[in-house]
Specification:
The chain has 594 residues and is α+β, with helices and mostly antiparallel strands. Helices cover 19% and strands 30% of the residues. The structure holds (2S,3S,4S,5R)-3,4,5-trihydroxy-6-oxo-oxane-2-carboxylic acid (GCB). This is Beta-glucuronidase. Belongs to the glycosyl hydrolase 2 family. Pfam families: Glyco_hydro_2, Glyco_hydro_2_C, Glyco_hydro_2_N.
Length: 594
């Protein structure tokens, strides 16, 4: 799915800003949509609604958004598309009172052609629900409360923020238009080959593909829908030199631009190779989370986070636990960060409380009771397809994460996940590596990640959840586990490790108390020593970049405090530790040679 842009043939307008908002109830009330929004309050878009008005924080069920807007048609024969980048969790959309589309899942875009429905004066209305259950991703549980009110328990450790979280736009294209492009590349000594496959709506003629370098010099052209173009002496995309070529596609009247980084990604033995060299992942598990905006796309915070990561010497991050706004990937492409791109599959647990769902029930997905497994499985497939369709051309995306901490140990896990891994490989033109993010929850020999993942990604909390605060004992257990992974011969990324620390809480450093900044530092120092001893560990992603909001529980002190930065991006002591470590550490390390 192409990112919406403006060009000579395409116009683009935003419907962001202040919308009218009405709080609804458990059941969908279509009368609200049809009638005037009498009790409407203003609500910013994009944002989560939860932290704007106090009574909305724990709201369960439906809410309604409305926006009046004008549209100036410039041409009679153009396609007009309404696009939502992300509405959490599910949405029904009405234009001028007529139902036009609906969408399940809050983290991927959806769009609909409205050419014959749009007028000069329009009313756009959305019914948005935040209900998550056994068949949604992420997974949630509905619990009855006193007063017969239902309540959602997330089966995951982040607040179930809701709303129109990302941009709402209208864009146009000519009738015969560029629908999609898929790009792959091959790298040889002094040249690269870019293979493209263009999808157009209309007859495949009048096609021109032009590739420009950074100096705007034309370096290759093609005029078929599918071809391979040679680039002599290519500039490869890399974290230190995120070189992007500009591609201009012309199809009849339609013009579309995109940037493309030429780079090679490969898993070989126990190494992860970027452009043929063993790469070491330094970075974070993140969240889309900020004060007041909640999970609403926050351009400022997004830029700030990249700046902070760069300063620390980080070179990568994981989009835990859902696909991030596309603008974030575009920045990662531009600034040179490797991204592990994750689906919304968090909370797929059978027998244990992975995903830190301390209060929720076990959700057994692998039995076929009431078709639940099939419903989740089908939705999971849709998410994988949509994610790859959106992100397949970004150089920064180097691996797909199929799920975070699912029950990958139980019987049935292999049969559930194998087709999903196969699907990702089939859908991705670049055939990137795939993984699932695995939690310590049983005999690691039973974990299906062994067979399925190209890179073993481990979320491990030795010294916190496991044996905390006794770091000697914990590190012995960590070593023992890594010894057990050695024989598999695959690379490992420690995709999460961390300890909560309350900003400003200090202690003496000989045996600091848990939750102090000093303990967090000691925890990382000891874990990093172990990580450094194992050549097969090719990356470290402390959990989390910043503190973030969660559901309330006795294990959470106003949210999860494992951030290296506070929620408002103030540094904790551990920032210094990682800055010192990462700025000295190369992006490419052959640990086998140490
Ligand atoms: C995990 C989860 C993450 C939690 C984290 C924690 O394993 O993947 O969502 O936030 O642990 O802090 O407990």
């Amino acid at each position: 799915m192409l990112y919406p842009i403006e060009s000579k043939s395409r116009s683009l307008s935003f419907l962001d800003g202040s919308w009218d908002f009405v709080k609804g109830g458990k059941n969908l009330d279509l009368d609200i949509i049809k009638n005037e929004f009498h009790d409407a309050r203003p609500m910013p878009v994009p944002s989560s609604y939860n932290d704007i008005y106090k009574d909305l924080r724990e709201h369960f069920g439906w809410v309604y958004y409305r926006k009046e807007f004008y549209f100036h048609k410039t041409r009679e024969d153009e396609r007009i598309i309404l696009r939502f980048d992300g509405v959490n969790q599910s949405a029904k959309v009405y234009l001028n009172g007529e139902f036009i589309t609906e969408h399940e899942g809050g983290f991927l875009p959806f769009e609909i052609e409205i050419s014959d429905k749009i007028q000069e004066e329009n009313v756009l209305t959305l019914a948005v629900s935040n209900v998550i259950n056994n068949s949604t991703l992420p997974v949630g549980i509905i619990k009855g409360r006193e007063e017969d009110q239902d309540k959602n328990e997330p089966n995951f450790d982040f607040f179930n923020y809701t709303g129109i979280h990302r941009h709402v736009r209208i864009y146009t294209t000519p009738r015969s238009y560029i629908e999609d492009i898929s790009l792959t590349n091959e790298i040889y000594d002094a040249k690269a080959v870019i293979n493209y496959y263009l999808k157009v709506q209309g007859v495949e003629e009048d096609i021109l593909i032009e590739i420009f370098d950074k100096d705007n010099k034309l370096v290759a052209t093609g005029n078929k829908a599918k071809a391979s173009l040679v680039i002599e002496n290519p500039n490869l995309w890399d974290v230190k030199n995120p070189y992007l070529y500009k591609i201009r596609i012309t199809y009849k009247e339609d013009i579309y631009y995109l940037d493309y980084g030429i780079r090679g990604v490969e898993v070989k033995g126990n190494q992860f190779l970027l452009n043929g060299k063993p790469f070491y992942f330094k970075g974070f598990g993140k969240h889309e989370d900020s004060i007041i905006n909640g999970r609403g796309f926050n351009e400022v915070i997004s830029h700030k986070d990249f700046a902070l990561m760069k300063e620390m010497g980080a070179n990568s991050f994981r989009t835990a636990h859902y696909p991030y706004a596309e603008e974030t990937l575009r920045l990662a492409d531009k600034l040179g960060f490797l991204v592990i791109d994750e689906t919304t599959a968090v909370g797929l647990n059978g027998k244990f409380g992975g995903g830190a769902n301390f209060k929720s029930d076990n959700v057994n997905i692998f039995d076929n009771e009431e078709g639940m497994a099939k419903r989740v499985f089908d939705h999971h497939k849709d998410v994988i397809r949509d994610l790859i369709a959106r992100d397949k051309n970004y150089a920064c995306v180097v691996m797909w994460s199929i799920a975070n901490e699912p029950d990958s140990y139980s019987e049935g896990a292999y049969d559930y996940f194998k087709p999903l891994f196969d699907l990702a490989k089939k859908e991705d033109p670049q055939k990137r590596p795939t993984c699932l993010i695995s939690v310590l929850a049983g005999d690691i020999n039973l974990d299906v990640t062994r067979k399925l993942s190209d890179v073993i990604c481990l979320n491990r909390y030795y010294g916190w959840y496991n044996d905390g605060p006794y770091l000697d004992k914990a590190m012995a257990a960590f070593r023992k586990e890594l010894d057990n992974w050695k024989e598999l011969g695959k690379p490992i990324i420690i995709s999460e490790y961390g300890a909560d620390a309350i900003l400003g809480m200090r202690d003496y450093d000989d045996f600091p108390a848990m939750f102090s900044e000093d303990f967090q530092v000691l925890y990382y120092r000891e874990n990093n020593k172990v990580i450094d001893q194992y050549p097969l560990v090719v990356g470290e992603h402390p959990w989390n970049f910043a503190d973030f909001n969660t559901a309330q529980s006795i294990k959470r002190v106003n949210g999860n405090k494992k951030g290296l930065f506070s929620r408002d991006r103030q540094p904790k002591l551990a920032v210094g530790l990682f800055k010192e470590r990462w700025t000295k550490m190369d992006d490419y390390i052959d640990k086998n040679k140490k």
